[in-house]
Write a structure and sequence with these properties.
elongated, DUF3742, about 80% helix, single chain, mainly alpha, disordered N terminus
Length: about 80
């Protein structure tokens, strides 16, 4: 009984992992794959932006200066 419950639980976990995969090479439709790749690219861009602004934060530049510059840069792009 315990073994059967574990196998059902692992099957559900594996199915959940399959549904939440981050691999863009899965069997998705073309539009879904395209959107997935765009989302991953956007995440990389946001991570680079976060690292860039945290660099200024770590150097001791006050947030009062960083925040308007950050939003101005975002608006310019």
């Amino acid at each position: 009984m315990g073994y059967k419950l574990m196998s059902i639980r692992h099957t559900l976990i594996d199915k959940g992992r399959w549904l939440m995969t981050t691999d863009a090479n899965t069997d998705l439709s073309g539009a879904a794959r395209f959107g997935h790749v765009l989302g991953r690219g956007l995440r990389r861009i946001l991570n680079v932006e976060r690292a860039f602004w945290s660099l200024f934060d770590r150097t001791g530049v006050p947030r009062v200066i960083i925040t308007p510059v950050k939003w101005g840069a975002r608006a310019a792009v």
